[in-house]
Write a structure and sequence with these properties.
Blueprint (H helix, E strand, L loop, with lengths): L4 H9 L6 H17 L1 H18 L3 H4 L2 H9 L5 H18 L4 H4 L3 H6 L6 H16 L6 H11 L6 H17 L1 H6 L1 H12 L4 H15 L8 H12 L4 H9 L2 E2 L5 H15 L4 H16 L4 H4 L3 H14 L3 H29 L5 H15 L11 H16 L5 H15 L2 H17 L18 E11 L2 E12 L3 E5 L6 H9 L14 E4 L12 H6 L9 H10 L4 H4 L8 H14 L4 E5 L7 H13 L4 E5 L3 H7 L2 E6 L2 E6 L2 H7 L33 E10 L9 E9 L3 E5 L6 H8 L7 E6 L5 E4 L15 H9 L5 H4 L8 H7 L4 E3 L2 E3 L1 E10 L2 E8 L9 E4 H6 L3 H14 L11 H9 L5 H4 L9 H12 L6 E5 L7 H13 L3 E5 L3 H7 L2 E6 L2 E6 H6 L1 H17 L10
Parallel strand pairs: 4-7, 4-8, 5-6, 6-7, 12-21, 12-22, 14-20, 20-21
Antiparallel strand pairs: 1-2, 2-3, 8-9, 10-11, 10-13, 15-16, 17-18, 18-19, 22-23
Helix pairs in contact: 2-3, 3-6, 5-6, 6-9, 9-11, 10-11, 11-14, 13-14, 13-17, 15-16, 15-17, 16-17, 16-18, 17-18, 17-20, 18-21, 20-21, 22-23, 22-25, 23-24, 24-25, 31-46, 35-40
Length: 1029
């Protein structure tokens, strides 16, 4: 049934006031039919919608439909009335569309309540009405709709209402993503309660909806953790794993309220965990995530929920260290709360009350229409709706003119023409913006460097729950060379890795700017490739002719023999040159150089300096603890200060002039950090520090398949007072010599002799290999695991002790004539001193009684091939000896204190997994672990790699104070000059011994300097392929 023609004509063209009596009759008839129900009631609902469409949406008030439909929907005595009203709401949403939202959105709460009506037709009509409203919704109205839906999810609501509200929110998560994202702060808490509701229907709907909503959190850094955050809400048993995973995440984006919203349920559960380490990690994450919120006002939503739990831990935590950490976190949250209050106070100065906003909307419409618009009482509902939408935009500090147009014009054009509505929306936007609703002004950041700007971005960076940079600015110009300076753990390498992975907010993407990260290590997955194959395996280089690759490698001194080697057989210096050659072939706009001089000799360092300085089209970011290298290359220094990057013009020297307190970057003696090495225990028979405790004699070594000896006729010895620098070019055999000295390798000829009780601490060239199998445990757990059982598990795996099965089978067949009876050796049991040597108690095969055991001299056992059994017992005996004046227990507390002596704070030694440590922190750990049993000798292969100037100064001072022997491979001239007075110079497999002054004054240095000059000349050659860009 349609509207009668005469009434329709009046509704479209007539005067509502003069004809009100006629409308009242029509409206009454329509409402009667609507409330009667059935097919005619459904038809009446459509006619009401058509009538409102024809007369304008304000006719909802003019004709009285708004109060009449509400009364029918609330009529508890008539199911058909309730159903009819809901059908009318559906028809209005479907036929009138967005113009009807000012009247429908306020009724959404009532629609949701009717989901649980006792009359099934009413439930069905309620679902149809709400669904149609969501389907046709203007996204600008979504925040208002979400308020009603969140209220419908409250605990006291019926399960049908909660389920329906959850389903509708899930749909909005698809159609109105930004609105749902902004509402996560309110949505997640009630949604989380629904996830554990007694009704399975609510649980199921909640799981699906929250999964969709969590994806909108907007922070790509926590995307890998999102699923676990959701899952642990329903399954608290997963909290431990979720907290651990979150604490190991690298954060580079600023954290906004949506991301915080989905983390809060997990953090609350973390504070309630039984495990102290998990509570501790949670408090750190809470404090640091709050720091990463750009707008402190965002944090105010969560501070009241988190502060009480952190305060309880600070005051009543079971562990003293936990109380300390929680107290620091609590202080941080209080500071953030104060900052947030200041921001909120600033915002409140320009806060819009609804009544004021309504007046502003009226004035904007009247001005845009030159006073011709009629804004009577019947327009109040529309005006209030527009005012609420304007308030939402103002609160979110969104003053984009196009979004204001999209949000307000569909309703304002009902009150004036379309053009007038557009003009009014634009004027209202400018008026609100002028009132000061843009928030705090940004800091004025000056760009004082000429040249092409490659990058100008602001971002935040965090890793493992620690804030590294917060709202930092990075400005990069073409041809400039930027040194990154900061303490170990400041985040220098983390920043460069984040840039290389395109995870720094605002940094140009790879298709706009080619950035190549040059790091120290080559991935194990390509270990079997030779040098040329490795370069051509890069997807960006596989199209290059092989000749071009070979030419580039030749330019960095790779010979044909070196190019044919597997990369696993390259020295550390050659691996770094290979990585640099590959990066240069990629013709990068920006080179990210992370400790590029690690493992490089002086000749290659000079070549690299020349390359960087002469290629003015390449921009470089450099992390290096080699002050000479930074001085020679950098044009600017970025310094980590208060979680910001501050730029200083000039090289490292100029930087220190501007910031004298940073002189530790330049002078080792200026370091304030202190390492303390444990004193070595006495050695039997060693009464003088000049007596040899470890030596090599006539030693030769050749790698399998190599055409020549790596080392030839090497003789040397080490004393307790030794301070030896092992020097030589890359590939000369320095690391091979050290590995033979530490029994990592076994010589084919000659002897390596060591005092039976000698304990050696060894830090390998690639120090991380010591810990590569322990990345997901804490440093303390690593030391505990390494020394459980009483001795160093690394030492027990050395070649001078580890006996293979075939080797044992061969020597155990030997026959010993004891008391005129043939016997076979079964085991070596004990050891005792005999004059200037030792003898060992031996047990025999098949003779278990101690009376059959015999004491055999060390010399005889070694001569007959049982040296590894002797060394095994020596190692166990040495490990059991007293390690100092007071024996150090292998406990977590003792490990924590011991790590402090090496600059590793409990934050990292006890509560961070090794994977999350910086390179410098890992070196400190390896050094501390090696020194745990108070060794007599310290052997370090390139220890300066990854250590900052503070740590390097602390290491040099500790070495100089220590009473044990020290052997060091290093190309860091300043460091070795500060600690070493002997030189082992490895040249073409031969070892030449001298004092440090002799080495510096004789022809060795002259020759090397000449080679360096020749290398520079070659680098400047115009036909060198590596210099083409």
């Amino acid at each position: 049934m349609g509207i009668e023609p005469d009434v329709a004509a009046m509704s479209l063209n007539g005067d509502a006031t003069s004809s009100f009596g006629d409308y009242r009759v029509v409206v009454a008839a329509l409402m009667d039919r609507l409330c009667f129900g059935g097919v005619d009631g459904a038809a009446a609902a459509t006619e009401i919608a058509q009538m409102v469409l024809g007369s304008g949406c304000t006719s909802m008030d003019t004709f009285g439909f708004a109060p009449l439909l509400r009364a029918a929907a609330e009529d508890s005595g008539s199911a058909t009335s309730r159903e009819g009203a809901l059908l009318a709401y559906k028809a209005l949403a479907e036929h009138v569309g967005r113009a009807a939202e000012p009247y429908l959105v306020p009724m959404l709460g009532l629609m949701m309540d009717r989901y649980s009506d006792k009359a099934k037709p009413v439930c069905k009509a309620a679902e149809a009405a709400a669904s149609m409203l969501i389907k046709e919704l203007n996204p600008a109205s979504a925040p208002l709709v979400l308020i009603a839906l969140i209220e419908a999810m409250a605990r006291e609501k019926a399960w049908q209402t909660k389920e329906g509200a959850l389903i509708l929110v899930g749909r909005l998560a698809v159609s109105c993503k930004s609105a749902v994202q902004a509402a996560l702060t309110s949505l997640v808490p009630v949604g989380s309660e629904c996830l554990v509701d007694a009704r399975d229907q609510v649980k199921k709907a909640s799981w699906a909806t929250l999964a969709a909503c969590f994806k909108l959190q907007g922070n790509r850094d926590i995307e890998p953790c999102v699923a676990s955050m959701l899952s642990c809400i329903a399954r608290p048993i997963e909290v431990v794993d979720a907290i651990t995973k979150l604490s190991g995440t690298t954060f580079v984006q600023a954290v906004e309220s949506p991301a915080l919203a989905i983390m809060v349920p997990l953090l609350i559960r973390g504070l309630r965990a039984k495990e102290t380490p998990i509570i501790r990690k949670t408090t750190i994450i809470i404090a640091n995530m709050s720091k990463l919120v750009n707008n402190p006002a965002d944090a105010t939503v969560f501070l009241p929920r988190l502060l009480p739990g952190v305060k309880i831990m600070a005051e009543d935590g079971a562990d003293p260290e936990l109380r300390q950490v929680a107290a620091m976190a609590h202080a941080t949250l209080l500071r953030i709360e104060q900052e947030a209050e200041e921001v909120v106070a600033h915002a409140l100065k320009a806060h819009l009350e609804l009544s004021v906003a309504v007046v502003m909307v009226q004035e904007a419409i009247m001005e845009a229409s030159n006073g011709t618009a009629t804004l009577g009482p019947e327009t109040n509902t529309v005006l209030e709706h527009v005012a609420r939408l304007a308030m939402i935009l103002v609160t979110s500090r969104d003053f984009n003119a196009q979004r204001w147009n999209q949000a307000l014009v569909p309703y304002m054009e009902v009150l004036a023409g379309y053009d007038e509505a557009e003009a009014a929306a634009a004027a209202l936007c400018e008026q609100c913006k002028a009132l000061g609703h843009t928030g705090l002004e940004n800091e004025d950041l000056q760009d004082d460097v000429e040249g092409q700007t490659l990058c100008n971005c602001e971002f935040s960076l965090a890793y493992g729950g620690k804030i590294l940079l917060n709202n930092a600015r990075l400005l990069l110009k073409r041809g400039r060379r930027y040194g990154l300076c900061g303490a170990n753990g400041a985040g220098k390498s983390t920043l460069m890795k984040a840039i290389s992975l395109n995870k720094v907010e605002g940094f140009p993407p790879p298709d706009k700017l080619r950035t190549v990260y040059v790091e120290h290590d080559i991935q194990g997955s390509v270990d079997e490739l030779d040098v040329v194959q490795y370069v051509m395996a890069d997807p960006l280089l596989k199209h290059l002719p092989k000749e071009e690759v070979i030419g580039a490698l030749s330019a960095v001194d790779f010979t044909e023999e070196l190019m044919s080697r597997q990369i696993t057989n390259l020295s550390g210096g050659w691996k770094m040159k290979l990585a640099l050659a590959r990066a240069m072939l990629l013709k990068a706009d920006i080179l990210l150089l992370d400790e590029p001089t690690n493992h490089m000799d002086t000749v290659n360092v000079a070549w690299l300096i020349n390359y960087l300085v002469t290629n003015t089209n390449i921009t470089s970011m450099i992390v290096s603890h080699d002050s000479t290298f930074l001085d020679a290359t950098t044009t600017d220094i970025y310094h980590y200060e208060n979680r910001r990057l501050r730029r200083y013009r000039g090289n490292l020297s100029e930087f220190v002039k501007a910031k004298p307190e940073a002189k530790s970057y330049y002078q080792l003696g200026a370091a304030t950090m202190k390492f303390t090495f444990p004193e070595p225990a006495p050695l039997d028979g060693v009464t003088s520090k000049q007596k040899s405790i470890l030596s090599m004699k006539k030693m030769n070594f050749t790698y399998p398949g190599a055409p020549r000896k790596a080392l030839n006729d090497v003789t040397c010895h080490v004393r307790l007072d030794s301070r030896v620098a092992v020097l030589g070019r890359n590939g000369a055999g320095k690391s091979t010599l050290i590995k033979l000295l530490t029994s990592e390798l076994k010589p084919q000829e000659g002897q390596v002799m060591r005092h039976p009780n000698l304990r050696v601490a060894y830090v390998a060239q690639h120090a991380f290999h010591h810990i590569e199998e322990s990345q997901d445990i804490t440093p303390a757990r690593y030391i505990l695991r390494r020394y459980s059982g009483g001795e160093d598990k690394e030492e027990s795996e050395k070649v001078h002790r580890k006996m293979e099965g075939e080797e044992w089978d061969k020597i155990k067949k030997q026959i010993w004539m004891i008391d005129n009876q043939p016997r076979q050796l079964d085991r070596v049991i004990a050891r005792r001193k005999k004059k200037r040597s030792y003898e060992y108690e031996v047990g025999w095969v098949g003779l278990s009684s101690l009376s059959f055991n015999r004491w055999i001299t060390r010399e005889e056992l070694v001569e007959r091939g049982f040296d590894k059994l002797v060394n095994e017992l020596d190692g166990k005996t040495a490990a059991q000896q007293k390690v100092g004046e007071v024996t150090r227990p292998l406990t977590m507390l003792a490990i924590e204190e011991f790590c402090r002596d090496f600059g590793l704070d409990p934050e990292f030694s006890m509560h961070s997994n090794i994977r999350g440590l910086s390179g410098g922190q890992k070196v400190k750990l390896v050094l501390a672990a090696a020194m745990w049993q108070n060794p007599h000798m310290l052997i370090m292969d390139e220890p300066t790699n990854y250590l900052d100037r503070e740590a390097l100064g602390a290491l040099s001072e500790a070495v100089n104070r220590w009473n044990g022997g020290v052997v060091i491979i290093s190309h860091h001239q300043e460091f070795i000059s500060a600690v070493c007075h002997e030189v082992w110079h490895v040249v073409d497999g031969m070892l030449k011994l001298s004092t440090m002054p002799e080495y510096l004054n004789d022809g060795h240095c002259v020759t090397e300097l000449a080679e360096m000059a020749a290398s520079d000349a070659k680098a400047n050659a115009p036909d060198a392929p590596m210099h083409k860009h």
